[in-house]
Amino acid sequence: MTPQRTAIPAAPAPFLLDPASAALVVIDMQRDFLEPGGFGASLGNDVGVLRRTIAPLRRVLEATRAAGRPVIHTREGHLPDLSDCPPSKLNRGAPSARIGDPGPNGRILIRGEYGHDIIDELAPLPGEPVIDKPGKGAFYGTDLGALLAEEGVTQLIVTGVTTEVCVHTTVREANDRGFECLVLSDCVGSYFPEFHRVGLAMIAAQGGIFGWTATSSDYLAALDASPA
Ligand code: TIU
Fold this sequence. Notes:
The protein has 228 residues and is an alpha/beta fold. The protein is 32% helix and 18% strand.
């Protein structure tokens, strides 16, 4: 049977949503990136600029849950003994605190610490998968690919932070694995407005070289219009 698809206005062309094959991916909406004293702040960033993503993402999360479609959360972080953190990542740059150092929300970017977890506003529901990843991409070193295959997912609705780092890396990984990725422009954010703008443009350039971009309101309207 041909799947029922709903066209979402998108760049560079409409995205044909097949709700039965789509999953929402929420990338790294962790205190470590969005709240003071965490990894993002240690790198010298103004973490407050990411907060505009929270309200639209919450609406997307609730609507996707209500439509009965899978929601997958990811978290970037490392084991307490740092055995999964390559020295190249640990020693890079001149941050105010390094991965594993103590901070106000616990050790920076370490699994199990308060700062590593997802912000309260977007907390996963019981049963929603949370993929812990050591890298920027959500496929590298995780079982995300197997999980999506099990669920019959071929389309990813991509949200989270940051646009040009973990969102981009994940979209590139997913695109090479054959997934159709729709990135929701107001539900992704960067510490750098210019990187955000260009990061989105890069996804949709050259006929959609990595995927599509659309607003969350256009995604929500399509979800509403889709057959149950
Ligand atoms: N620094 C930065 O912009 N991002 C990251 O290190 N990780 C994610 O994007 N999640």
